[in-house]
Amino acid sequence: MYALGKMPEEVIQMLLQEGANKKLVVSLADKFYQDYVFLLSERRSKKRKSAQRNTLLGAGLLLGGLLLTFLSYLSFGRSPYVVFYGLTFVGLVLLVKGTVENNQLIKRSPSRFTNLKQ
Questions:
Q1: pTM: predicted TM-score of the whole model, two decimal places
Q2: Using an 8 Å Cβ cutoff, are 33 and 2 in contact?
Q3: Residues with Cβ < 8 Å from 96, sequence gap 6 or more?
Q4: End-to-end CA distance of the chain
C-alpha cells in the first residue's frame, strides 16, 4: 500500500476492512511501513553501488585509454600512432552514466512519513 502512495491512515483503514485486530492495526501499519522503508533503502544501496562501480570503472577506462594513446604517441613519435578511441569512449560513457545515476540518488529521499507510534 505504501508503494502505491497510500498514507498511513489509509493503510490502517484497509487493515480494519480486511478484519485485522483493532488493537494491533497501528503496530501492523507501522511494521509494514518499516518494511517498506527497508526495501527502499536496499534498492537505493544497490543503485548506489552500481553507480559507484560505473563511475570508477569509467574513470579507469578513460584514463587507461588516454594513457595508452599517449604512450603510443611517445613510442612512435610523430609518425602514425594508435589512438584508443573505443576504450576512451566506453570509459567516458560509463563515467557520465555513473555520475548521473549518483546525482539522481542524491536528489531522492526514501522517507515520506513519520513513525506511526508517536
A1: 0.66
A2: yes
A3: 58
A4: 21
